[in-house]
């Protein structure tokens, strides 16, 4: 397996997990885009910020999340993202899959 | 003193240095262009812009008054390279069908304009082979040389080198560059599978890293070769053609239709280029043969009014359909899709030219509405058993470019004089010899037929232009008449019929010797232009 293949698998894995992460963050509390970015960066799941925006829009179009405009104390109003019911359902599903995957790896690594 | 630019990003005012402004503008413009027409595209760009504004204001609060190029660069690095953002979106379309394979210029692997590399990607062959063909073609000597007609009128040469050069230029102009990730997929015809993704993303990564190494250098260049905005827009709009939707592509009928389209397109391409080439050859051939441009022939006919529009419309009605089919063929075969207005414009131009041709034609042909002819029999006296005929031309007869048809009864002669745009046609009445018995009186039947707007006008023209002759002893002199721009042909056809006894010898002395024999023993049939 060459380097590009490995890169490819890595980026695919990261992509999947990133969507899961966004849903997880929003499950706890609604957030601005910048808050989301901050948390994701702290967790070191994203490196560059620009890629998040197409992703958010996609998840919104899939009906997983929604946003509302909120006035901010400084500057123009900002988007406040929150999870939809569908998003919550998908998140539960993902939690289950994640648990299964972790268990699988645990079994395999023993 | 330095120039600064004040801008408002997401309604927050900033002061940017010129360099900073430029690199930010390139970045945002590129995103806008990429997302124009995409679902919620502006939302994505707005989000990114909002974030850039946020990051900028965080940093300017820390004390910077004018946003420098380095700060913008820092923020753009945080946002990430354009390719990564676009790839995220391209990935989002994963569930959609692979884009149809289209011909693009591969500007990532270009030497000049990326035409060769684009062709190589399209036909899935090594770019080295394509380049080799081009270079060999470019330096092929002028193989086709039509130098048969080199009587001092120059040579006619088709140079392969120029041909390849022109084709390259044309393709450079017509074929859009593959700029976005999406277009790169379409260029390779690779579906958005892991393999295609991998191939394209590897290239992206290579470029990203090479850019990173250059980053310490001067101001950051636009991420890619820029092309006029209209180009990229055009390719987006066409990539959204509904006929290439997923359901169609998986359908067996789609494949059949595609094969059919390529076949028909190839036919269009071949036939239209054949028509265009033969037009060029025909036009140049008449140029060599008659030493005049074919449209100059229009000037020789007595059309009413201006012949310019008649000529223009005539040429357009012939050339436009050929060009149209060439375009249609290239659309069908290579999927090169120009602006939709190209086809429509061409069609209406052709229609206009056709209508123009009919209008100017009927208007111009007004002089040919009616026909009339006159006949007169003039008795002659034959003084010897031989009758000589001299056909007198105003100028000396050039022994080139004449036409003559003669046998033992009929003699026709005429030729072209003059050059280029002012040709001059020299014509003589058709001579016909009719044998009769000794008892009948020898005579000459003068016949003249002409056209005109009305019957009397036609008759008048026929009368004034009827052939004349002069009989001195046993020499019959017949003058020529000329057709040229100032004295154009109004459709007059005239002839002289000689009614002579069977044993009368008749010899044309000037300008070409010809005997009217008693039998079918000899026949002159020289067509000129040789």
Beta-strand content bin of chain B: 15-25%
* Widest β-sheet, arrangement of strands of chain A: 1-3-2
Largest sheet of chain B: 8 strands, mixed
What oligomeric assembly is this protein in?
Answer: heterodimer
CATH fold description of chain A: Arc Repressor Mutant, subunit A
Task: Provide the CATH architecture of chain A.
Answer: Orthogonal Bundle
How many H/I helices of chain B? Answer: 15
What is the terminal-to-terminal distance of chain A? 25 Å
The low-confidence runs of chain A, each spanning 5 or more residues with pLDDT under 50, are none
Please give the largest β-sheet of chain A. 3 strands, antiparallel
Radius of gyration of chain A: 16 Å
CATH H-level superfamily of chain A: Winged helix-like DNA-binding domain superfamily/Winged helix DNA-binding domain
What are the low-pLDDT stretches of chain B, counting only 5+ consecutive residues below 50? 146-156, 191-250
Kindly state the percentage of residues in helix of chain A: 55-70%
What does this protein structure show overall?
- The complex is a heterodimer of chains A (110) and B (530).
- By secondary structure, chain A is α+β, with helices and mostly antiparallel strands.
- Chain A is built from 4 helices and 3 strands, in the order H-E-H-H-E-E-H.
- In chain A, strands 1-3-2 form a 3-stranded antiparallel sheet.
- Chain A is globular.
- The two termini of chain A are 25 Å apart.
- The model of chain A has no long low-confidence stretch (mean pLDDT 87).
- In chain B, the strands form 4 sheets. In chain B, strands 5, 7, 8, 9, 10, 11, 14 and 15 form an 8-stranded mixed sheet that branches. In chain B, strands 12-13-6-16-17 form a 5-stranded mixed sheet, with no helix packed on it.
- The interface between A and B is medium-sized, with 27 and 34 residues.
């Amino acid at each position: 397996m060459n380097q590009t293949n490995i890169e490819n698998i890595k980026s695919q894995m990261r992509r999947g997990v990133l969507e899961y992460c966004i849903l997880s963050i929003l499950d706890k509390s609604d957030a601005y885009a910048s808050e989301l970015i901050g948390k994701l960066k702290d967790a070191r799941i994203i490196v560059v910020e620009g890629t998040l925006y197409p992703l958010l829009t996609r998840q919104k179009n899939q009906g997983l999340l929604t946003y509302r405009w909120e006035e901010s104390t400084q500057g123009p109003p900002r988007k406040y993202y929150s999870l939809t019911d569908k998003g919550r359902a998908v998140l539960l599903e993902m939690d289950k899959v994640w648990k299964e995957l972790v268990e699988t790896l645990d079994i395999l690594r023993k | 003193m330095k120039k600064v630019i004040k801008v408002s990003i997401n309604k927050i005012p900033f002061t940017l240095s010129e360099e900073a402004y430029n690199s930010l503008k390139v970045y945002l413009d590129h995103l806008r262009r990429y997302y124009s027409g995409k679902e919620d595209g502006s939302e994505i760009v707005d989000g990114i812009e909002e974030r850039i504004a946020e990051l900028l204001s965080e940093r300017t609060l820390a004390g910077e008054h004018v946003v420098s190029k380095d700060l913008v660069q820092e923020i753009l690095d945080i946002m990430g390279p354009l390719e990564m953002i676009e790839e995220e979106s391209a990935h989002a379309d994963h569930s959609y069908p692979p884009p149809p394979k289209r011909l693009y210029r591969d500007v990532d692997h270009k030497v000049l304009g990326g035409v060769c590399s684009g062709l190589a990607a399209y036909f899935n062959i090594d770019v080295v082979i394509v380049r080799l063909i081009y270079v060999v073609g470019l330096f092929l000597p002028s193989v086709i040389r039509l130098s048969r007609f080199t009587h001092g009128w120059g040579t006619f040469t088709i140079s392969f080198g120029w041909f390849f050069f022109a084709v390259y230029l044309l393709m450079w102009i017509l074929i859009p560059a593959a700029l976005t990730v999406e277009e790169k997929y379409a260029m390779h015809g690779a579906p958005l599978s892991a393999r295609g993704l991998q191939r394209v993303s590897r290239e992206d990564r290579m470029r990203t890293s090479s850019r990173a190494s250059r980053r310490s250098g001067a101001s950051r260049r636009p991420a890619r070769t820029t092309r006029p905005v209209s180009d990229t827009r055009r390719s987006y709009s066409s990539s959204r053609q509904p006929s290439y939707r997923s359901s169609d592509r998986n359908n067996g009928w789609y494949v059949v239709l595609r094969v059919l389209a390529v076949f028909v397109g190839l036919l269009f391409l071949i036939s239209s280029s054949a028509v265009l080439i033969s037009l060029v050859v025909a036009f140049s051939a008449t140029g060599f043969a008659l030493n005049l441009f074919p449209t100059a022939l229009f000037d020789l006919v007595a059309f009413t009014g201006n012949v310019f529009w008649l000529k223009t419309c005539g040429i357009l009605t012939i050339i436009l359909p050929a060009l149209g089919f060439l375009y249609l063929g290239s659309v069908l075969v290579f999927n090169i899709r120009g602006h939709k207005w190209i086809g429509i414009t061409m069609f209406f131009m052709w229609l206009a030219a056709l209508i123009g041709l009919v209008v100017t034609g009927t208007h111009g042909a007004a002089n040919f509405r009616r026909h009339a002819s006159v006949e007169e029999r003039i008795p002659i006296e034959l003084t010897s058993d031989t009758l000589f005929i001299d056909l007198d031309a105003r100028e000396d007869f050039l022994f080139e470019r004449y036409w003559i048809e003669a046998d033992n009864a009929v003699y026709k002669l005429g030729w072209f004089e003059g050059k280029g745009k002012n040709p001059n046609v020299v014509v003589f009445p058709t001579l016909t010899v009719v044998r009769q018995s000794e008892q009948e009186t020898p005579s000459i039947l003068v016949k003249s037929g002409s056209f005109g707007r009305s019957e009397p006008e036609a008759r008048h023209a026929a009368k004034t232009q009827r052939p004349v002759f002069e009989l001195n002893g046993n020499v019959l002199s017949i003058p020529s008449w000329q057709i040229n721009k100032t004295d154009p042909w109004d459709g007059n056809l005239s002839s002289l019929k000689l009614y002579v006894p069977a044993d009368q010898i008749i010899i044309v002395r000037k300008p070409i010797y010809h005997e009217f024999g008693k039998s079918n023993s000899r026949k002159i049939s020289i067509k000129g232009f040789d």
